[in-house]
Task: inverse folding
């Protein structure tokens, strides 16, 4: 699981790099990044092995994950059309 968190850390770095390079093309949505692909496929089953607290924490991640992707893409769109 923590490796998937690192995948998302890399996504944040990619977002910052895109801003620095003035590359404002949209990023993958929350279902298409590495974390999202895992989260929406086998993630729940993996987390169930570690108990209810892990499943709860895992489910709490979803809202933040979706929000990050939406906000990152809103920022990129604003930059692309000059609304920075």
Result:
């Amino acid at each position: 699981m923590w490796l998937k968190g690192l995948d998302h850390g890399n996504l944040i770095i990619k977002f910052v790099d895109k801003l620095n390079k003035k590359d404002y093309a949209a990023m993958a949505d929350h279902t298409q990044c590495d974390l999202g692909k895992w989260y929406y496929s086998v993630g729940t089953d993996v987390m169930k092995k570690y108990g209810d607290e892990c499943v709860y924490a895992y489910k709490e991640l979803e809202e933040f994950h979706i929000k990050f992707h939406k906000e990152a893409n809103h920022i990129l769109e604003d930059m692309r059309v000059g609304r920075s």
Q: What stands out?
A: DSSP finds three helices and no strands in the chain. The mean pLDDT is 87. Residues 2-80 form one domain. Residues 31 and 41 are 10 Å apart (CA to CA).
